[in-house]
């Protein structure tokens, strides 16, 4: 019972961390591709 309650609290936190990381990774990748596009144009 206690473990099930604990997982109910942990799972949303894991989802939040994952989403936050996914956004940061996407922004980082987007920045890299933008830099790459600028340098390839020159």
Question: What does it look like?
Answer:
The chain is an all-alpha fold and 42 residues long. Helix content is 95%, strand content 0%. The protein has a domain at 13-37. The protein has one helix and no strands. The N and C termini lie far apart (62 Å).
Mean pLDDT: 87
Please count the beta strands (DSSP E, at least 2 residues each): 0
Secondary structure: helix percent: over 70%
Number of helices: 1
Distance between the termini: 62 Å
Low-pLDDT runs of 5+ residues are: none
Q: State the order of secondary-structure elements, H for helix, E for strand.
A: H
Largest sheet: none
Strand content: under 5%
Structural class of the helix and strand makeup? mainly alpha
What would you report as the Rg, rounded to the nearest angstrom? 18 Å
Shape: rod-shaped
Topology overview:
Layout (H helix, E strand, L loop, with lengths): L1 H40 L1
């Amino acid at each position: 019972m206690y473990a099930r309650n604990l997982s109910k609290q942990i799972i949303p936190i894991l989802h939040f961390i994952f989403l936050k990381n996914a956004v940061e990774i996407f922004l980082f990748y987007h920045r890299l591709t933008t830099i790459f596009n600028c340098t390839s144009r020159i």
